Automatic annotation (TrEMBL):
<protein>
    <recommendedName>
        <fullName>2-C-methyl-D-erythritol 4-phosphate cytidylyltransferase</fullName>
        <ecNumber>2.7.7.60</ecNumber>
    </recommendedName>
</protein>
<comment type="pathway">
    <text>Isoprenoid biosynthesis; isopentenyl diphosphate biosynthesis via DXP pathway; isopentenyl diphosphate from 1-deoxy-D-xylulose 5-phosphate: step 2/6.</text>
</comment>
<dbReference type="InterPro" id="IPR029044">
    <property type="entry name" value="Nucleotide-diphossugar_trans"/>
</dbReference>
<feature type="site" description="Transition state stabilizer">
    <location>
        <position position="15"/>
    </location>
</feature>
<feature type="site" description="Transition state stabilizer">
    <location>
        <position position="22"/>
    </location>
</feature>
<comment type="similarity">
    <text>Belongs to the IspD/TarI cytidylyltransferase family. IspD subfamily.</text>
</comment>
<dbReference type="GO" id="GO:0050518">
    <property type="term" value="F:2-C-methyl-D-erythritol 4-phosphate cytidylyltransferase activity"/>
</dbReference>
<comment type="function">
    <text>Catalyzes the formation of 4-diphosphocytidyl-2-C-methyl-D-erythritol from CTP and 2-C-methyl-D-erythritol 4-phosphate (MEP).</text>
</comment>
<feature type="site" description="Positions MEP for the nucleophilic attack">
    <location>
        <position position="153"/>
    </location>
</feature>
<dbReference type="InterPro" id="IPR001228">
    <property type="entry name" value="IspD"/>
</dbReference>
<keyword id="KW-0808">Transferase</keyword>
<keyword id="KW-0414">Isoprene biosynthesis</keyword>
<dbReference type="InterPro" id="IPR050088">
    <property type="entry name" value="IspD/TarI_cytidylyltransf_bact"/>
</dbReference>
<dbReference type="GO" id="GO:0019288">
    <property type="term" value="P:isopentenyl diphosphate biosynthetic process, methylerythritol 4-phosphate pathway"/>
</dbReference>
<dbReference type="Pfam" id="PF01128">
    <property type="entry name" value="IspD"/>
</dbReference>
<keyword id="KW-0548">Nucleotidyltransferase</keyword>
<feature type="site" description="Positions MEP for the nucleophilic attack">
    <location>
        <position position="212"/>
    </location>
</feature>
Amino acid sequence: MRTVAVVLAGGVGTRMGSELPKQLIEVGGRPILAHAVAAFDAHPAIDEVLVVMAGAHLRTAAAITAPFRKVSGVVEGGVTRTASTVAALTAMAERPDDTRVLFHDAARPFVDAGVIDRVLNGLTAHEAVAVGLPTSDTVVAVADGLVASMPPRATLFRFQTPQGFRLGTLRKAYELALADPALTATDDCGIVHRYLPDVPIRVVEGSERNLKVTHPLDIVVAEHLAAGAPDTAENM
Ligand SMILES: Nc1ccn([C@@H]2O[C@H](COP(=O)(O)OP(=O)(O)OP(=O)(O)O)[C@@H](O)[C@H]2O)c(=O)n1
Ligand SMILES: C[C@](O)(CO)[C@H](O)COP(=O)(O)O
């Protein structure tokens, strides 16, 4: 049974507001995309890394990822993250259903082997695995500028990636999702949760270092992390 990491790099980085998509910005001397790919390329349980990139930057992504021996291809993504996942699923159309697939945001350059291990361990007993951390802020639902509900904080987690799946399960979820004209989702676990509600999604521990570079300030944080800055008091 093979394990494929899909690195989603098809976004344009609207919130970053940079000329280049944020995954092509260098932190710690190499592009954010290269950091993300390197983590999976170096992991002994990952057989293959598939990169999804916006059409305008396919050649750049191919050049950046060429040194990584497990990269099997760079495919063109879609307009949304969901469409980019579909492009990866299409590229994996011939793969058996029991293939393990890990979908990761290229915008999370500091995913580490421990997080990847936890996702893979979760996949031994579950069809879908998410990475999460408890929230330290109080999180509320707001409607029309008013608080609509305040779920107990202890029940709330911030999701990260990679999110792991048996390929067959993710395929099924996406078949149903793509037939839904009201489809909206911010991640692949969201698709499984909505369209295959009977499939339990195991949540394993993420890492504070595994930040998603989204806004300009995140680049400053990413530079510190790339330089080896500690993220826990234990390391200080
Ligand atoms: N059409 C898209 C949109 C997003 N992504 C990827 O999904 C990850 C998470 O998305 P996000 O942080 O939202 O990236 P962008 O879409 O580039 O950012 P923005 O929403 O600010 O435009 C990123 O690695 C991004 O490249 C993708 O592969 N294809
Ligand atoms: C998948 C994700 O990183 C989990 O936190 C997040 O939902 C991606 O959201 P984005 O708006 O595409 O950055």
